[in-house]
Design goal:
This protein is α+β, with helices and mostly antiparallel strands. The protein folds into three domains: 100 residues, no CATH class; 128 residues, Jelly Rolls (Sandwich), CATH 2.60.120; 72 residues, 3-Layer(bab) Sandwich (Phage tail protein beta-alpha-beta fold), CATH 3.55.50. 30% of the residues lie in helices and 30% in strands. It is built from six helices and 18 strands. Strand 4 and strand 5 form a beta hairpin. Helix 2 packs across helix 4 and helix 3 runs antiparallel to helix 4. The longest helix is centred in the N-terminal third of the chain and has 41 residues. The radius of gyration is 32 Å and the shape is elongated.
């Protein structure tokens, strides 16, 4: 961020600044440049506060003990005042820093004592969450999200198990990070969809805007560009990045639209289990060879099963409690 003027900084120190000016100076002093500025100012003040040479040199005989006592007492008072000024010159910046730290800590986790919020989206539901920095997260069914009430001074980290679409408020000094078990997505102001359920070894990432990188626990770093999608296998370490031909298709779920494109049956039944909160039992393993492409609104389960049966020779039977999958 831009450095506030010296006049504005001094107004804040003197207690004459507006709320907006105080907030601007507080945010700047929380940066590396601002911390260096404070350190430099303190060094200068400490240097000026050092004692000088002895100020009194008497080149004649003291006329009386009384005169000598008065001079000594006068010197003591001067040294006392000088000591007080020196202590004040050093203490005031520290008091200012403590006050500033209190102001900054109201917005960020400056002292590492923040509380966390745990969110779980049940199967069949979807919700939206907004963080204190303005970042938004749309969460799909059966998703766990853990995030701090106040982000730290140097990064903004959340913990995800499930699927979410993030619209991240840009702040290059405090990257946004999505932790998925041992793997991390590092974000610098962007919009992207990430799907990473702990029950699956696969991580899917689709980037609409901005700049992100996946940093796996095992090795390396994979950068994703806008319009690209990434698939990472946590069990093998294999990563595949390709052009996303239908950029909005991946995140249609946040508009209450269930969509599949060349999706294997295994993933279809997993998503439908979360979407409708109904278990699927695949009785015939031959059904796993089929993939599905379909876009459907938030229709009843029976209607969706009927549409799926039109695509392949696979039968879906709902007995009121679970869906039985078999060959026709």
């Amino acid at each position: 961020m831009n450095r506030p003027s010296d006049e504005t900084i001094q107004k804040v120190i003197d207690g004459l600044a507006t709320t907006e000016e105080a907030n601007t100076v507080a945010e700047w002093l929380a940066t590396e440049e601002g911390q260096m500025h404070l350190s430099h100012k303190m060094d200068i003040q400490a240097l000026h506060a050092k004692e000088g040479y002895e100020e009194l040199f008497v080149d004649h005989i003291i006329p009386s003990d009384k005169m000598f006592d008065r001079i000594v007492e006068h010197g003591k008072r001067r040294r006392f005042r000088r000591t007080i000024l020196r202590v004040a010159a050093i203490a005031i910046p520290f008091i200012f820093i403590l006050g500033l730290g209190w102001q900054v800590n109201k917005k960020v986790d400056l002292f590492g004592k923040t509380e966390y919020v745990d969110v779980y989206v049940p199967k069949g539901e979807r919700i939206q969450v907004m963080f204190q920095d303005g970042t938004k997260a749309y969460l799909n069914s059966d998703t766990h999200l853990r995030y701090p009430k106040k982000f730290s001074l140097f990064d903004r980290k959340v913990y995800l198990n499930g699927e979410g679409y993030f619209t991240v408020d840009k702040n290059p000094d405090r990257p946004f990070m999505v932790q998925m078990n041992d793997d991390v997505i590092k974000v610098y102001g962007t919009e992207f969809n990430v799907k990473a359920y702990s029950a699956s070894n696969l991580i899917y990432v689709a980037l609409d805007e901005g700049d992100i990188s996946l940093i796996p626990f095992a090795k390396g770093k994979y950068c994703v560009k806008p319009g690209e999608k990434l698939t990472y296998d946590r069990s093998t370490g294999e990563c595949r990045i390709s052009k996303n031909q239908d950029t909005e298709f991946v995140s249609l779920w946040k508009k209450d639209i269930l969509a599949f494109k060349n999706t294997p049956l295994k993933d279809v039944v997993a998503d439908m289990n979360r979407w409708y909160n109904v278990p699927f039992i695949v009785e015939d393993s031959r059904a796993y060879i089929y993939s599905y492409t379909i876009v459907s609104g938030n229709v009843p389960l029976e209607k969706m099963l009927t549409d799926l049966e039109k695509i392949s020779p696979v039968k879906f039977y709902f007995d009121g409690k679970q869906v039985i999958v078999s060959m026709k």
